[in-house]
Amino acid sequence: MTLVETAASTATLPKLDEEQQQTQKFVLTLSCGERAGIVQAVTTFLFDRGFNIDEHQQFDDSLRETLHLRTAFSGSPAYTPDMLEEEFRPIADRFDMKFSFHDQTQQRVLVMVSKFGHCLNDLIFRWRGGSLGGELVLVVSNHETHRAMAEAAGLPFIHIPVTPDTKADAERRLLELVEEYDVDLVVLARYMQVLSDDLCRALEGRAINIHHSFLPGFKGAKPYHQAHARGVKLIGATAHYVTADLDEGPIIEQEVIRVDHSYGPSTLATVGQDAEALALSRAVRWHCQHRVLLDETSTVVFR
User: Over 67-113, what HEC string results?
Assistant: First the structure.
């Protein structure tokens, strides 16, 4: 067959329309009481609409008698999360499910930082490398320290000073920015201000904090000096959802690094920063990928 004949033959093949050429990816997450038939109901719902299951994870909590499920699936882009939620609702009502559907739209992330920039730097690096799982859209700080870092990455930087007299106004401004930038997740990347109970409630389930977590725990000034003085052998960090109970929200991820007597306070601080950056980036990625399900005061994380 000549080149002309090949071209003519190819031209006669039926063309796929846009819907046939594209595939949309979705994620379903749900939690409910344990009952027979839940997984069958979910898979039948997806099969009847021509979806293919790409990943399925579930956890049956025998102590609380609950089921937690995450199913990633793909198929027709004609569907939207709102359409799927509407069609799935009769099933959800039957099993008393708490559920949500998500498409490939990336979570929009606002990062808050004070004077320590290691977590912000790590988040920016992973975001620019495409491994963060979310889209950084704004950096907010109560100091000017990291303006250059944010702006060099092409991120808007907004300075909101905080004093005891201006705290309420600063938090109102933050909520305005969350609305203005259509923010899905607020990340406290070593933001050294305690959020008010009202702000914690306003951001419930969509704000993540990071802090050091030694064994034993050391509070107050110079925790790494305290750790060194006590001969600590493990340095750790905890990423958790923000609640009104300071540093006691549902835990998403923890990182622990072994140390020994040769580590001075400055070396311990460096190791601690590594642990904080690792734990926080994982927590942000898993949240943005809809892998974290709240379970009362704890979490189920489908890695």
Answer: EEEEEEEEECCCCCHHHHHHHHHHHHHHHCCEEEEECCCCEEEEEEE
pLDDT reported for residue 212: 86
Angle at 256 between CA 252 and CA 262, to 5 degrees: 160
Q: What is the pTM of this model?
A: 0.90
**Numbers of helices and strands, H then E, in the chain:** 10, 13
pLDDT, tens only, 51-101: 999 999 999 999 999 999 999 999 999 999 999 999 999 999 999 999 999
Cβ 217 vs Cβ 246: under 8 Å:
no
Instruction: Give the pairing type, strands 107-113 and 134-141.
Output: parallel
Measured in degrees and rounded to the nearest 5, phi and psi for residue 129 equal: -85, -5
Instruction: Report DSSP letters for 241-289, one per residue.
Output: E--SSTT-SPEEEEEEEE--TT--HHHHHHHHHHHHHHHHHHHHHHHHT
- Tokens 């704004």 locate to 138
CB neighbour list of residue 285: distance below 8 Å, 6 or more residues apart: 126, 131, 132, 133, 134
Name the one residue in this structure whose structure tokens are 């979570």: 107
Q: Residue 205 — left, alpha, or beta (φ > 0 → left; ψ -120 to 50 → alpha)?
A: left
pLDDT for 131-157, tens place per residue?
999 999 999 999 999 999 999 999 999
Give me the catalytic one of 247, 260, 274, 295: 247
Could you say which DSSP state residue 148 is in?
H
Rounded to 10 degrees, the C-alpha dihedral 68/285/167/142 comes to 170
Q: Residue 251 pairs with which residues in a beta bridge?
A: 240
Q: How far apart are CA 120 and CA 123, in angstroms?
A: 5
- 48 is known as an active-site residue: no
